[in-house]
Amino acid sequence: MAVPRATARRPLPHPERAEIRLTAVLHALADPMRLRVVRALAEDGGELSCSDVELPVTKSTCTHHYRVLRESGVLRQVYRGTAKMNRLRREDLDARFPGLLDTVLTAARRHPES
Asked: Is the pLDDT of residue 40 over 50?
């Protein structure tokens, strides 16, 4: 019997809280497209699929941006059916780097062109 596609997917790798590095987080947040994703997740406060955040780039480039955000520890991705759902790892980021995420999001709101 074939395993249904949605359950056949392997879990996506994420760093544990203690493994999240400031340099990786800053690198992930430095890109305007990735920052746009983070802002959307912060404003929503819940989970969004990759397609819920419109980015003016190709699908493969979107995949790259989400992978950088996941591997840096900025967001957590899980499969829900065929969609990848994304949630900001605010609690983990606040525990590792208190105030960093709020400072970056405040600056991004003040200077949206950055």
From this structure: yes
CATH code for the part of the protein at 13-110 = 1.10.10.10
In 3D, which of 45, 42, 36, 26 has the Cα closest to residue 102? 42
Domain extent listing, the chain: 13-110
Q: How far is the C-alpha of 72 from the C-alpha of 86, rounded, in Å?
A: 14
Mention every residue, 6+ apart, whose C-beta is less than 8 A from residue 61: 33, 55
Please check the confidence at residue 6 and state whether its pLDDT lies above 70. Answer: no
pTM of this prediction?
Answer: 0.87
Distance of alpha carbon 67 from alpha carbon 44, whole angstroms: 20
